[in-house]
Every structure is written in C-alpha cells, then in structure tokens.
Amino acid sequence: FTDYCASKFAAVGFAESVDLEMRSLRKTGVKTTIVCPYIINTGMFDGCGSKWPTLVPTLEPEYVAEKIITAIRRNQEILVLPRALYFLFALKNILPVTVTVLVTEYLGSLHIMDSFKGRAKED
C-alpha cells in the first residue's frame, strides 16, 4: 500500500511541478492531466474493496479509460474518480491531519488493502 501511495504522490508532484514550470516559462503547448482513480477492477487490485461501494465503487477499466481520454482532450488539470473523491481532495488540504485521518478511517481507506491478493506470480 505504501509503495503504491508513494509512487502516486511522486507522480502528482511531478505533474504539478511540470505544469508550474511551463506556466512560469509561458510555454502553453505542454499540458498535464493528473489522474487519481480509486480501485479499478483489474488484477492489480484483486481482493481490494470499498467499505462504501455506493459512494466509492470499484471502477471498470473501460470507464476509467474513457474518462482519462475525455479529460486529456479537455485539458483538464486533474481527474479524480469517482467524482465523490474530489470532496476528500479538497478537505485534505484544509483540515488538520488528525481530522483527515479520522475521515480516512471512517471511509475504510486505511484498510483497503487488508484483503489484497494482487497478481499471481508467473513461473
């Protein structure tokens, strides 16, 4: 879980830095779209599930791909899936860490990987 989150954090930071640098250089031809999906129904997330599937459902790969293409075509700066998670992104930046942890715990995000199976190793 930590390795996935750390790599996602790095990717977001990199994209934000590229965007800001291009703006400072007044380079308008380079665009970035940060993609932050929740659980996608692929082997990578086997065994993972949502405590609140109505609010934050497991996403189908085709749906995610469609949303990514649309976001890129619209020069959307960030894409968070499902949309309900935009709220959490906003809260994370304004609430104290303790409150963010409590909300994360309530939503079950701290235990999302407890039943993780992952992809089977090939011989």
Number of strands: 2
Sheet with the most strands: spatial strand order: 1-2
Average pLDDT score: 85
Low-confidence stretches: none
**Major beta sheet summary:** 2 strands, parallel
Give the percentage of residues in beta strands.
Answer: 5-15%
**Class computed from helices, strands and strand pairing:** mainly alpha
The gyration radius over C-alpha positions equals 16 Å
The span between the termini is 24 Å
Question: How many H/I helical runs?
Answer: 4
Bin the helical content. Answer: 40-55%
Q: What's the order of the H and E elements?
A: HEHEHH
Gross geometry: globular
GO molecular function: oxidoreductase activity, acting on the CH-OH group of donors, NAD or NADP as acceptor
InterPro entries: NAD(P)-bd_dom_sf (IPR036291), SDR_fam (IPR002347)
Pfam family, one: adh_short
GO cellular component, one term: lipid droplet
Question: Any overview of this molecule?
Answer:
This is RDHE2 dehydrogenase. Pfam families: adh_short. There is one protein chain. The chain has helices at 2-24, 61-73, 85-94, 97-107, and strands at 34-37, 78-81. The chain is mainly alpha-helical and 123 residues long. The chain has a domain at 33-111. The chain is globular, with a radius of gyration of 16 Å. 4% of the residues are buried.
In short:
This protein is 46% helix and 7% strand.
What brief labels describe this structure?
123 residues, mainly alpha, two-stranded parallel sheet, 4 helices, globular
Describe the secondary-structure layout:
Blueprint: H1 2-24, E1 34-37, H2 61-73, E2 78-81, H3 85-94, H4 97-107
Parallel strand pairs: 1-2
